[in-house]
Design goal:
Structural class: mainly alpha
Distance between the termini: 51 Å
Strand content: under 5%
Order of helices and strands: HHHEEHHHHHHHHHH
Number of strands: 2
Radius of gyration: 21 Å
Low-confidence stretches: none
């Protein structure tokens, strides 16, 4: 087999399979982590019956979903009903193609393997485009179910997506202005050149941008306190009320995959990606960039992956902490927050970033 075939076909196929397999495992145990953390915050124990300390609970959940009856409502649009969960899940998986998990390439069997599937010069635009497609699956599910509660949930999700895409995009534009590139690998390298691992500290720290992106992303992924499309007390279960079995599992998988995707994007854009956490201490970066020096490039790649994973876990913990802490917004409060507060704040933040950059040059 030629090196060209290895580099262009075999290695990307293996990378895709590995990323999808790891992602599915992470989703399964993120559900368990969520149940454990919320139980801890509510002074409960959480799942403990299946396996030691409940560690096999995700396996039991998967088996339960596989064995449940798959129901099709009598008056549902069959084709659209079946397509909706697939259209919701696919963009969540495809978006991981441009996420850089570490920074050091590794040679395997004489072929250079990079710790990302692909790096394109419009990676940020690709992420914004592909992640916005998921709402089509929600709208299709709500319409195809031929039921009032799923339809109301789908309409809420569409309005929520339109409202919070704007501040989310505004927060990303300021990062593009500072990094001078839309490549995700380039953005992390720009943060390395800036001398900080966190928020492009100079010349203008992106704390407001991080706040805008994270809040908007919580709304985009329909998570508490912005989970209006699936509000149980109002809409039974929202857009997936009529779904069961594996089709429901696809909705479940898409939601948690999107959470992990948001945590990865926050890590890359605002938290330095695979760069070590040095807290501004001079000379510490080199010592923490390769915790396994005897493994060479592989050690540096694993070290970068470790730092990336730690930051992603912190962001996901905030996701779960917020769910356990804040009550759900009313719908008018949700719209008011997006249009009257986050969008003006995003515009002001963008203007300040431009002014500071102009003054710095």
């Amino acid at each position: 087999m030629s090196e060209t075939v290895l580099k262009s076909v075999v290695v990307p196929a293996l990378q895709i399979a590995l990323v999808v397999a790891v992602l599915l495992g992470c989703v399964a145990y993120l559900v368990l982590l969520e149940r454990k953390i919320i139980a801890f915050m509510q002074v409960r124990l959480g799942p403990r019956r299946v396996g030691p300390h409940g560690l096999l609970q995700p396996v039991a959940d998967i088996l339960k979903l596989l064995l449940k009856e798959d129901i099709l409502p009598a008056r549902a649009d069959r084709l659209v009903f079946y397509l909706a969960p697939v259209i919701l899940l696919l963009p969540a998986l495809v978006a991981f193609a441009v996420i850089p998990f570490s920074g050091t390439p590794v040679r395997v069997l004489g072929v250079e393997v990079r710790p990302w599937i692909t790096d394109i010069n419009v990676g940020v635009l690709f992420l914004l485009a592909i992640s916005s497609l998921g709402v089509y699956g929600i709208v299709m599910a709500g319409w195809a179910s031929n039921s009032k509660y799923p339809l109301l949930g789908a309409l809420r999700s569409a309005a929520q997506m339109v409202s919070y895409e704007i501040p989310l995009g505004l927060s990303v534009i300021s990062i593009l202005m500072l990094a001078q590139t839309a490549s995700l690998v380039g953005i992390v390298r720009a943060q390395a050149e800036d001398g900080s691992w966190f928020l492009f500290w100079m010349p203008y720290p992106q704390i407001v941008g991080l706040f805008l992106y994270f809040v908007s992303a919580i709304a985009e992924t329909n998570r508490a306190p912005f989970d209006l499309p699936e509000a149980e007390t109002e809409l039974v279960a929202g857009f997936h009320t009529e779904y069961s079995g594996m089709k429901f599992a696809f909705f479940f998988l898409a939601e948690y995959a999107n959470m992990i995707l948001v945590a990865c994007i926050v890590t890359v854009l605002f938290l330095g990606g695979w760069l070590p956490i040095t807290l501004g201490i001079p000379g510490l970066r080199g010592a923490l960039s390769n915790l396994l020096p005897f493994w060479g490039d592989a050690g540096a790649a694993l070290t970068g992956l470790l730092w990336f994973g730690i930051k992603v876990l912190v962001v996901l913990y905030l996701y779960l902490w917020i769910r356990a802490t804040f009550p759900r917004y009313r719908y008018d409060q949700l719209m008011r927050l997006g249009w009257k507060w986050l969008i003006p704040l995003g515009l002001a933040h963008l203007v300040v970033t431009g002014i500071v950059l102009l003054a710095a040059h």
